[in-house]
Each structure stands twice: as structure tokens, then as C-alpha cells.
Automatic annotation (TrEMBL):
This is Signal recognition particle 19 kDa protein. Belongs to the SRP19 family. Its main location: cytoplasm. Transmembrane segments: none annotated. One of its GO terms (cellular component) is nucleoplasm. Component of a signal recognition particle complex that consists of a 7SL RNA molecule of 300 nucleotides and six protein subunits: SRP72, SRP68, SRP54, SRP19, SRP14 and SRP9. Interacts with IPO5, IPO7, IPO8, KPNB1 and TNPO1. Interactions with IPO8 and TNPO1 may be involved in SRP19 import into the nucleus. SUPFAM superfamilies: SRP19. It comes from the Eukaryota.
Length: 110
């Protein structure tokens, strides 16, 4: 296995993951919500998250069959995660307004 420092930030396995539970206002922090409830939305889907990130100009791809480990409900509407590229090949940010996972999550819900 290669060292994480040796891999390029542009490799798809280095993209950050966003699960719908991170942004769901119906979830508690213990259930996986990662942003303030005032910024969260009701039952977001991975497709909606992908659409928002694409509209902003980020390189994204959807993994439909992935599930968040804390999600107890296995219905299709709760499946999926979005992989988002924050850094380019040289390590610089793709978009300066999104330096981290947290800022991207807050903006996706606004």
C-alpha cells in the first residue's frame, strides 16, 4: 500500500466523502450530522448533493451503492455518497472558497 503523501490529491480515492446524513436536519450529531441544525436540510439525497457541488464547479462523482456506517435504514433513498475533489494535482485548492470539508458542507446546504 502506498503512503498517503506519495499519492496525488487528484486521485479519486483521495477525494473527500459527503454522506447525506452529514447534512440531514433529522439526524442528531450522534447519528452522523456534522453541521449545525440551522444549516442542515431535511432528508437530502446523494444525487441532490452531487447536483449542488457540480453547479458550484467542483469535480464530483456519485457512489450509489455506498452506505454511511451509522445509517440503520437500508432503503434506497438513504444510499449513496458523493466524492468531491478539493485539491488539484499540485496540492492547490480547486476552489478557494472551499478549503475544507466543513466549508463545503455548510455551503452545500445554504
Amino acid at each position: 500500500m502506498a503512503c498517503a503523501a506519495a499519492r496525488s490529491p487528484a486521485d479519486q480515492d483521495r477525494f473527500i466523502c459527503i454522506y447525506p446524513a452529514y447534512l440531514n436536519n433529522k439526524k442528531t450529531i450522534a447519528e452522523g450530522r456534522r453541521i449545525p441544525i440551522s444549516k442542515a436540510v431535511e432528508n437530502p439525497t446523494a444525487t441532490e448533493i452531487q447536483d449542488v457541488c457540480s453547479a458550484v464547479g467542483l469535480n464530483v462523482f456519485l457512489e450509489k451503492n455506498k452506505m454511511y456506517s451509522r445509517e440503520w435504514n437500508r432503503d434506497l433513498q438513504y444510499r449513496g455518497r458523493v466524492r468531491v475533489q478539493l485539491k488539484q494535482e499540485d496540492g492547490s485548492l480547486c476552489l478557494v472558497q472551499f478549503p475544507s470539508h466543513y466549508t463545503l458542507s455548510l455551503t452545500s446546504c445554504s
